[in-house]
Amino acid sequence: MSFNIPDDRRYLESHEWTEERDGTVRVGITDFAQDELGDVVFVELPDIGDDLDAEAAFGVVESIKAVSDLYAPIGGEVTAINETLFDAPELVNDDPYGEGWMIELDADGSLDDLLTPEEYEEQIE
Amino acid sequence: MTDRYHQAGGTPFAPHTEAETAAMLDAIGAESEVDLFDIPESVAFDGEFGIDARTEREIREECGRLFGENDDLVEFLGRNHHGHYVPSLVDHLADRQEFLTSYTQYQPEITQGFLQALFEYQSILAEVTGLGVPNASMYDAATALGEAATLAARLRQVDGTRVLVPELLCPGRRSVLDNYVAGTDLVVETYPTADANVDVDALADAADDDTVMIYAENPTVRGTIEEHLADIGRIADDAGALFCLGSDPVALAILEEPASVGADVVVGDASVLGMPTSYGMGLGLFVTREEFIRQVPGRLVGVSTDDAGNRAYTLTLQTREQHIRRERATSNICTNQAWVALRTAIHAAMLGASGLVDLAETCVREAEALAADLDSIDGIDAPIHDRHHFREFVARTDRRAAAVRDDLLEAGFAVHVVGDHEVQVCVTERTERRTDDLVAAFEEAAR
Amino acid sequence: MTDDREPTMTGYDQARWIDGDEPRYEPLLSEKDETTVEVGGDDGPLPDDLTRDDLTLPELSEPELARHYTRLSQMNYGIESGPYPLGSCTMKYNPKFTEDVAALPGAAVHPDRPDGTLQGTLELMAHLQDYLARIGGMDEVSLQPPAGAAGEFVGILVAKAYHEHNDEGHRSEVIVPDSAHGTNFATAALAGYDVIEVPSAEDGRVDLDALEAAASEDTAAFMLTNPNTLGLFERNIEAVAEIVHGVGGLLYYDGANLNALLGRARPGDMGFDVMHYNVHKTFATPHGGGGPGAGPVGVVEKLAPFLPAPRVRERDDGFERFDPEYTIGKVHGFEGNWLVLVKAFAYIARLGDDGLRDASAKAVLNANYLAERIGYEVPHGPFHHEFVASAGDQDAADVAKRMLDYGVHPPTTKWPDIVSEALMTEPTEIESRDSLDDLAAAFEAVREEDDETLAAAPDRTTARRIDQTEAARNPRLSWHDLAD
């Protein structure tokens, strides 16, 4: 089975993706992660304004068979959260890289140390 | 006894004849049953337990003799364990093997019946408490209180370390609570009571930002009806703490609705319906608000749809539980009290709204009438608390309470001793016919 | 190996009422009636400010209720409905006479009575403490924990109190094998310990090197099930005990699988310091649709002073309750699930030494016979009272759903996950050879079916496959939630 791994993003071993967007960094979980979890039924996200440390757990994604913590790829302040997920958690399954995004950060560092798409693909093989 | 199925020395509950055992061993390719065990000799047990097998009839006689050694007393006892009359229908329906002998509903397609019964149990709890998230049971009231404290510790909505409980809390309940918070950073502290109700001013002083939960009971362990529930709710709210209320479904049939006074969690003993006095065996009721649903301990029965489009019931939100979330589960509970919950639901349905209200009003009237009768006896003041009472009350005795209790035991009645000169008396519809006899016995014992 | 007989059907879908072509199910009580009663007012015994306004509940007559619950029961599968080979759950027949014993007049007493008026109850408890101690090879037993997980909690709290008493309160870790029951992890966490998971060795047993690496002066206890969840006896148990005791830790026995060892081996003889018994598994008290059970705890002498209060002992003038010297206090408001304990006592008395030994023999015989009759691979052995087969390329959860169509209860699935697509199967001693052949036929029928059939199963049950996602995304937990 092959999973979608967009070229324009960086990845974490814990299956989050990051995307640079006009000064902020958007974070979500990968296609592989949503497939492993199965139907997502609940997403818990931080509040806007929360300061996150890199690698700290910032939220929870829950499916009918598992609960996973979400880890911050990088430190920074939360500038936006995807509130649509509270009522429509299925977006994480349907469109993990698009409408299923989770938070945006005012990042205080660079994404260069994160996994490249190739490195991430190797990891999930 | 020996027959084709029950060879001498065998268990009567295995259906193997000797020939079948031999054929099965043959199919496996083993010489004997013993060969199937892979136990190193150094730890194998070749001794005897010294437990003699008895026949069914012998055991019934033996236990009948044992229980016959319990004194035949009319129990005017309560204090967190109450026996109401349980209709025969409850026993007969709950004892159907499909209910009694089934396992947890992990295969919901063949356990719709039990799931529906538990859903109905949850619904009854939601009705009497006014709160939206009832679980499918905890062990008893004390463990439900412990679970409420750990819920408070987990919630993001509240923070702090202090759990405040009334100084009148039963020692057993307090001890269980202490053990449940042993693994958290919570500290349990008591707040004062006034005339067996919450001392509201003292509680307001005690509560602060570091308080995560305030626990109060209605009725209290001394049988008084709490008059300050709304104040307690307000104090908890101001402190940013959960208000946890201890009660039971009979009392809640008429007393103030917990949701209306700001309760966030309701715990207590639901087995006041469905179970007779059972040496303290209970049923922990646990109900909380929607916003805490993902931190609730224990099993939840929810509604869904099956592939044929019909409504169907199923255990839900199981990722909270130990079999999936392990050390991060909301509780370690697995086996619960499901069958008792079934009994409670049947009993509640049998009473219906009017029967339940009637029963609860009887608990008020009988307690107040019995207290008045005892109060008319020289050497007894009853009730000593100037409150309304539910099921039970405390009386002051001029004689030492233990001496009064002992004389009452001689006369065939059991009451609690709760102080050097204080006894507690509980009366329900089960004992109301014997109150005249109790009063007569008190007249003798009070002297 | 296959069997040529047809799978048998049981009639647990009899509760369906056929209304035209449509099945119709038993409505909720609230759909039959809702009656609202005003509370308080002039006739009420309490002032209005102490009461609620009204109460709304269904009101039905006794015959209506009898039918309601009988129909619900017909939509439920019990141990007398057919085989129930749920691994790790020990679903035995629950002898009827034990119900009658628990219902004897005189059993229904209040725990706050003085000891002198409760001699029969206390004597039975003393006997049961003694029986359990003998069966487990333990010195002392507490009957208080109301379930297995509560027994685990007591065991770990006792270990904690023991270490603290010996000025070793720094011990902060409990070690648990990866194949352990989820309750072990949750219990250790509830008691405030860090949980250290150790992987199993290739052979499915404890990896001694991994245990040695995990064990340290921070170890409070190691929790182990034996035979383990694969049904394998931990042959290195003495070495395990040496490692754990060597670092000053205690060895905890999870009694979930004790049925395999009755009269064959005792935890106390293997070096375990503390254990719980699951009386609703090993001693045939009914599971009650999820409970109540009871989880008594046995300990070696040095841990006895820490057991919950009260315990029961015999004195010259009769039986009495007492608080152990350094008791951890209580884990139940009173003294546990008394009526369940009465049933366990009656069961043990019925079997006696020989019957208990025969129960483990037949349980192990049945598991081995059944495994022999099915084609699914069983990767680990020699197993005892249960085995874990792999569904191979099939989805184990789908296999289970399809087995429902063949009129049997399926095994526990997808756990332990050290076997892929696990089918954890425990037939217990109560199944006859014929019944095991029927069960094997159901396994074999499903094994030969395609994924599509499995994914569409079940179709002969009261409810078809239930949408778990819908239930979790939109939790509706009472009939009040159905109105919207």
Question: What would your notes on this structure say?
Answer:
The complex is a heterotrimer of chains A (125), B (447) and C (484). By secondary structure, chain A is α+β, with helices and mostly antiparallel strands. Chain A is 18% helix and 35% strand. Chain A contains 4 helices and 9 strands. In chain A, β1 (10-11) and β2 form a beta hairpin. By secondary structure, chain B is α/β, with parallel strands linked by helices. Chain B folds into 3 domains: 18-64, no CATH class; 74-85 and 352-445, Aspartate Aminotransferase, domain 1 (Alpha-Beta Complex); 88-345, Type I PLP-dependent aspartate aminotransferase-like (Major domain) (Aspartate Aminotransferase, domain 2). Chain B has helices at 18-28, 56-68, 88-94, 97-100, 112-129, 141-154, 171-180, 200-206, 229-239, 322-325, 338-375, 401-410, 435-445; strands at 74-75, 133-134, 162-166, 187-191, 193-194, 197-198, 211-217, 242-247, 265-269, 284-288, 301-305, 311-315, 380-381, 392-397, 413-414, 416-419, 422-426. A 7-stranded mixed β-sheet of chain B has the order 2-10-9-8-7-3-4, sandwiched between helices. In chain B, β3, α7 and β4 (187-191) form a beta-alpha-beta unit. In chain B, α3 (88-94) runs antiparallel to α11 (338-375), α5 (112-129) packs parallel to α11 and α6 (141-154) packs parallel to α7. The model of chain B has no long low-confidence stretch (mean pLDDT 96). The longest helix of chain C has 36 residues, at 338-373. Chain C has helices spanning 29-32, 62-74, 96-102, 119-136, 148-165, 182-190, 208-214, 237-246, 267-270, 279-282, 338-373, 396-405, 433-447, 451-456, 468-473, and strands spanning 17-19, 22-24, 35-38, 54-57, 140-142, 173-177, 194-198, 219-225, 250-255, 274-277, 297-299, 311-315, 318-322, 387-390, 412-413, 422-425. With 484 residues, chain C is α/β, with parallel strands linked by helices. In chain C, the strands form 5 sheets. Chain C has a 7-stranded mixed β-sheet with strand order 5-11-10-9-8-6-7, sandwiched between helices. A 3-stranded antiparallel β-sheet of chain C has the order 14-16-15. Chain C has a two-stranded antiparallel ribbon with strand order 1-2. The N and C termini of chain C lie far apart (53 Å). In chain C, α3 (96-102) runs antiparallel to α11, α4 (119-136) runs parallel beside α11 (338-373) and α11 (338-373) packs across α13 (433-447). Chains B and C meet through α1, α2, α3, α4 and α5 of B and β3, β4, α2, α3 and α4 of C.
